[in-house]
Structure formats: structure tokens, C-alpha cells
């Protein structure tokens, strides 16, 4: 698994639960180290052992933990760069949703050896959507569910999201109903970054 993914998990755990929690989990998972390097690729077994150790430590199901990770990736000040990249997907939440079809390709442009599963948005009606998360990374749809919730808040949209299961091709489906696109004031976003 790519080091950027592992580093994001590390950042989330340390920021949310504390470094001691992280250190205990790395010990239980028998990694042999405590810091991930962002640009290295690690054996998936190590990453999954670490996730199991973290979920056991926190007494949380993996899906819930990964959904919270997805929320963190957008909402925490440590991750402002990723939030900005996602906001370039569109002026509205619906435009952002339509940009998700190209997300894995855009990620590969930025980091050539980071491969994310394909995403496919199906517009069932002007206010109802399905996001199809193709196989390739266990828990990806859970992370995307948290990310989609946080992005809805970021845009000020009121959206109901549900992971509706996996189809016969192994594709996880997230159903979304856009109740109101301008439900609340979204977070400020300017095209020009300020230092």
C-alpha cells in the first residue's frame, strides 16, 4: 500500500487519538517501525494488520474508523491541501460529484505510483446519485463516504448518504440524495491560495 495512504492514517490517528495510541497499535501490528514514509510502498498485509490493531485499540468497526478517516482528510487543518484539490472539482457540490469520475487519474498525475480504484458517478435523477467504488482497495468506499459527507458540509449542501452494499461485480455503492444544495453557508474557498 502506498506510503501516502499509510501516512494519512498515521496523521489521523495522532491528531485524533494521540501519538500513544498510534505507538501501541504499531507495536501490536509488529511493524518494526513507527513512522511511515510518504513516498514508499508497503506490503498491504502490514497496513491491514495496523488497521486491525487500531480498530481493536479503539474498539471501533473498521468501516466506522475509515469513514472518520475520510472526514478527517477534508475537514482537519492538517489536510487543507487535499481539501483545496478536491474543491477544484467544481463550484457546487453536484459539480464536485461529477468530477469524481476523474479522481483516480488526477491522483496518478500528481503521484504516478499511487493507484486508487476507479469511481463512477451515476445520476439517477437531478437530486439522486450513486457513486460506484470499484474494487482494489479494501475500505475505500468507507473512506469515500466520510469524504463525501465532509465535502457536503464544505459546500454547505444537505445530503443524505448511505453505503447500499456491493454488487455482483464487487463494486461498492454509495447512494446520495441531495436535499438542498445551499442548506448552510459553506466553508470559504478562494482559487488563489494565501500563505
UniProtKB/TrEMBL annotation:
This is Haem-NO-binding. PANTHER family: GUANYLATE CYCLASE SOLUBLE SUBUNIT BETA-2, SOLUBLE GUANYLATE CYCLASE GCY-32-RELATED. InterPro entries: H-NOX_domain_sf, Heme_NO-bd, NO_sig/Golgi_transp_ligand-bd. Residues 2-155 form the Heme NO-binding domain. It holds the Pfam family HNOB. GO terms for molecular function: heme binding.
